[in-house]
Description:
With 313 residues, the protein is α/β, with parallel strands linked by helices.
Amino acid sequence: GLISDKMKAKGKLYWGSALDPNTIAITQIANIAATGDFGCFTPENSGKWDATEPARGQFNFTGFDALVSFATSHGKLVRGHTLVWHSQLPAWVSAIGDAATLTSVIQNHVSTVMGRHKGQILAWDVVNEVFNDDGTFRNSVFFNLLGENFIDIAFKAARQADPNAKLFINDFNLDGPGKKIDAMVALIGRLKSRGVPIDGVGTQSHLILGQVGGVAGSIQRLATTGLQVAITELDVRIPKPVTAATLQQQQTDFNTVTKACLAVPQCVGITSWGVSDKTSWVDSTFPTFDSPLLFDDNFQKKPAYTGVDSALN
Ligand code: G3I
């Protein structure tokens, strides 16, 4: 089967993947990405601040344009990622020292980046990873100069820039009960009570083999906010060495996560964080883990793919 097509048949919008010019350049990945297995792409790096506005007011859309062009020419959706994030942030932004300057810099960044492909982007991760794991706000130039209000500023600018895009807050480690998901749900409540334009919450879901039992409850909990929910960066990393048994467990885990989205009407779609294990971020970031995606290093379907497919039958 073709899993994005099957997601749509179930009333969801897509199964998606992270993608960018560096992975589109791999013929096998481009070929898989063009099929009905994937219906939405997220720029893995090309939409981030260091790529799009490396110097103040100097925008570069080379990579982002190429990603959007690949997607639209194949009839796929795009999830924009990401406008305001503490990481992959150019030094010139971190060096800003006053609230007024930072406010106008955020507004200009959001309006210029979102304006680029206005009307063509399904959803944007407007702010990313604002929380520490204990539920306190992460230190960043944004929080340090503007407090929580940086989130309001970003979302208001985003709504103005592209009124058709669904506006998401996105974070990781929301995969079970705890202070981080508590803080996210509470923040969304405050944003809504202040009239901040927000449409969705993304749970990245960078998961570890055999540790996916909290996902269904988390998606239900996030849905209680009334917002759309999306699984935005799914992978399930396997401790080395990878064996037939652990690949089988990964099949079960992907099946469980897929069913968790299917069970909640507000869950709009699932994006896995790459097509093939060959190019996953996990290799360099977690050297003792491997093989987190649906297609292996040789671009062949893994048991994990069957886990997704069978959830959709
Ligand atoms: O483009 C340069 C290349 O010119 C250079 O030769 C090479 C040498 O290291 O680095 C390349 O840049 C790397 C870039 O990925 C493109 O491959 C960066 O070093 C590397 O840091 C960057 O990693 C990305 C990471 O975000 C950075 O934070 C990963 O690809 C990307 O998958 C990852 O994605 C994040 C999400 O945006 C947010 N959630 C967590 C997720 C995983 O970390």
